[in-house]
Automatic annotation (TrEMBL):
Residues 1-444 form the Biotin carboxylation domain. The lineage of its organism: Bacteria, Pseudomonadati, Pseudomonadota, Alphaproteobacteria, Hyphomicrobiales. It comes from the Bacteria. SMART domains: Biotin_carb_C. This is Biotin carboxylase. It catalyses: N(6)-biotinyl-L-lysyl-[protein] + hydrogencarbonate + ATP = N(6)-carboxybiotinyl-L-lysyl-[protein] + ADP + phosphate + H(+). Keywords: ATP-binding, Biotin, Fatty acid biosynthesis, Fatty acid metabolism, Ligase, Lipid biosynthesis, Lipid metabolism, Magnesium, Metal-binding, Nucleotide-binding. This protein is a component of the acetyl coenzyme A carboxylase complex; first, biotin carboxylase catalyzes the carboxylation of the carrier protein and then the transcarboxylase transfers the carboxyl group to form malonyl-CoA. GO terms for molecular function: ATP binding; biotin carboxylase activity; metal ion binding. Its EC number is 6.3.4.14. Pathway: Lipid metabolism; malonyl-CoA biosynthesis; malonyl-CoA from acetyl-CoA: step 1/1. GO terms for biological process: fatty acid biosynthetic process; malonyl-CoA biosynthetic process. It holds the Pfam family CPSase_L_D2. It comes from Mesorhizobium qingshengii.
Length: 447
C-alpha cells in the first residue's frame, strides 16, 4: 500500500480523495494555486505545496511542478481526480518514468480512449455495441455520401480528437453533408490540431446511460451498474441517477456483463466509464472515460462501495475488494450538481459565501469543499458541491431529495439550487420520462 498520495486537484474532489486516503491511513499531500490557499482540502491535508498562480495551465496543469512536488514530499502515488490531468496520457507516462504511481489506467489505455475513432474501433472489437457509422476517419465527400446513404439520415460528424460534445455537426439530409463534413474537419483541425472526423447515425431522442467499470490490474473486470445522465445543459451534466429509470434488471445485467468482459479483455486497470446512447431498448457505445467521474457517488450509494478506496487498492497492486457476485444494487440515488451560477442564465457567480448550511439525515450526502465565509475564486469551474440522496426506491429518493433541497442554504452567491427545487416537482422527472434534450427544452420554455 502507498505511504503518501499527492492529490493533483482542487475543490470537492480533492476533499473526496483526501477522505479516502485518511480512512486508509495514507499520508496526503495537496498541491494548490495561489488562489486556493484558503481551500478546505489545503487545510485538511497533511502537507501542501503551492505550485503556481491561479490560471490552471500554470498550476493544476503544470506537470513539471506536480512532479517536483512529488519529489520534494516523497509522495509515491498521484490521484488526479477528474478534469485537469486525469486523462492526460503523457502525465501518466511521466509519473511512471519517475517511479510514481498514477492512480488510474496506463498511459496507453488513456491514449486509446482519447482518440474517439480508436476508442470506437476498440469497443467494437471487444464486443460492445456501437453506433452504426464509418469504420474510421472519413476524408472524401464521395465516401461520406456512400456511408451516410447506407446508414440513413440524419447523420452526425464527430471529431476524433473531440469528445464530450466538442466538434460535432449534424447533417439532416445529403444536402447538408458536404458542409457538415468540411466545417467539422476544419474546426477540429483548428481546435485540436487533428482534423480527423468520423460519421455516425444521428440518434434523435436517446438517453445517456453510462456503465461504471473497474479493471483489477490482474486481467479481471467488473461492473458497478449504470448511471442515467440524460439531464444535461450544453454537455454539462446537471442531475444524475442510479439505476436508470429506463432499464430493467435484465438489461442492466446484459450491458454490464458485456462491459465487464470487455474491460477484462482489454487488460484495463482502475476505474472507467463506458458511455452509451440508449434508444428503443438498444445500447450504442459513444465514448469511454478513463477517470473517476463527478457522478460516482450515486453508484457508491446504491452499491455501498467506496470507489476511491477501490482505485487506490487496484493502483497499489492489491486488487479489488469485491467480486462481481458481491456487488449488489440497493435502492435508488440521485445527485444534483450545485453550481455557483445563476439558476436561469447559468452565468458564473463567484464571490463570498456568507452562510452555508447543508442538509442531513438518513440517505443524505453532501460532497463540497466550501464553507461559510469561503470566497469562491473566479478562475475554475463553478461546481461548489454535490447533493447525493439515497432511498429504498425512486419515489422515496425523490421525497427525500425535495426535503433535503428545502434544508440547503447557500447565501451570498447565486446557485443552481432553485433549478433543482423546480425539477423535483416536475411530472416528467417524477416519472423518469426524459431524454438528452429534455432539460434544454424545459429551460427554453422558461417555466
Ligand atoms: C450523439 C448524439 C446523437 N447521435 N451521437 C454529445 C456528447 C458526446 N459525448 C456525444 N454526444 C452526442 N452524440 C449520435 N450518434 C447526441 C449527442 C448529444 C448528447 C449526448 C449525451 C448527452 C447529451 C447530449 C446532448 C446533445 C447531443
Amino acid at each position: 500500500m502507498f505511504q503518501k498520495i499527492l492529490i493533483a486537484n482542487r475543490g470537492e474532489i480533492a476533499l473526496r480523495v483526501l477522505r479516502a486516503c485518511k480512512e486508509l491511513g495514507i499520508q496526503t499531500v495537496v498541491v494548490h494555486s495561489t488562489a486556493d490557499a484558503d481551500a478546505m482540502h489545503v487545510r485538511l491535508a497533511d502537507e501542501s505545496v503551492c505550485i503556481g498562480p491561479p490560471p490552471s495551465r500554470d498550476s493544476y496543469l503544470n506537470i513539471h511542478q506536480i512532479v517536483a512536488a512529488c519529489e520534494i514530499t516523497g509522495a509515491d502515488a498521484v490521484h488526479p481526480g477528474y478534469g485537469f490531468l486525469s486523462e492526460n496520457a503523457k502525465f501518466a507516462d511521466i509519473l511512471a518514468a519517475h517511479n510514481i504511481t498514477f492512480i488510474g489506467p496506463s498511459g496507453d489505455h488513456i491514449r486509446i480512449m482519447g482518440d474517439k475513432i480508436e476508442a470506437k474501433r476498440t469497443a467494437k472489437r471487444l464486443g460492445i455495441p456501437v453506433v452504426p457509422g464509418s469504420d474510421g476517419a472519413v476524408t472524401d465527400q464521395k465516401e461520406a455520401r456512400r456511408i451516410a446513404a447506407e446508414i440513413g439520415y440524419p447523420v452526425i460528424i464527430k471529431a476524433s480528437a473531440g469528445g464530450g460534445g466538442r466538434g460535432m455537426k449534424v447533417a439532416l439530409t445529403e444536402a447538408d453533408l458536404e458542409i457538415a463534413l468540411q466545417t467539422a474537419s476544419t474546426e477540429a483541425g483548428a481546435a485540436f490540431g487533428d482534423d480527423a472526423v468520423y460519421i455516425e447515425k444521428y440518434l434523435e431522442k436517446p438517453r445517456h446511460i453510462e456503465v461504471q467499470v473497474f479493471g483489477d490490474g490482474f486481467g479481471r473486470g467488473v461492473h458497478f451498474g449504470e448511471r442515467d445522465c440524460s439531464l444535461q445543459r450544453r454537455h454539462q451534466k446537471v442531475w444524475e441517477e442510479a439505476p436508470s429509470p429506463a432499464l430493467n434488471a435484465e438489461e442492466r445485467a446484459r450491458i454490464g456483463d458485456i462491459c465487464a468482459k470487455a474491460i477484462a479483455d482489454l487488460g484495463y486497470s482502475g476505474a472507467g466509464t463506458i458511455e452509451f446512447l440508449y434508444e428503443n431498448g438498444e445500447f450504442y457505445f459513444i465514448e469511454m472515460n478513463t477517470r473517476l467521474q463527478v457522478e460516482h457517488p450515486v453508484t457508491e450509494a446504491i452499491t455501498g462501495i467506496d470507489l476511491v478506496h477501490e482505485q487506490i487498492r487496484v493502483a497499489s497492486g492489491g486488487g479489488l475488494s469485491v467480486k462481481q457476485e458481491d456487488i449488489k444494487f440497493n435502492g435508488h440515488a440521485i445527485e444534483c450538481r450545485i453550481n455557483a451560477e445563476d439558476p436561469r442564465t447559468f452565468t458564473p457567480s463567484p464571490g463570498t459565501i456568507t452562510h452555508f448550511h447543508t442538509p442531513g439525515g438518513l440517505g443524505i450526502r453532501v460532497d463540497s469543499g466550501v464553507y461559510s465565509g469561503y470566497k469562491i475564486p473566479p478562475y475554475y469551474d463553478s461546481l461548489i458541491g454535490k447533493l447525493i440522496v439515497h432511498g429504498r426506491n425512486r419515489v422515496e429518493c425523490m421525497m427525500r431529495l425535495r426535503r433535503a433541497l428545502d434544508e440547503f442554504v447557500v447565501d451570498g452567491i447565486k446557485t443552481t439550487l432553485p433549478l433543482f427545487r423546480d425539477l423535483v416537482g416536475n411530472a416528467d422527472i417524477a416519472n423518469g420520462e426524459y431524454d438528452i434534450h429534455w432539460l434544454e427544452k424545459y429551460l427554453a420554455k422558461g417555466e
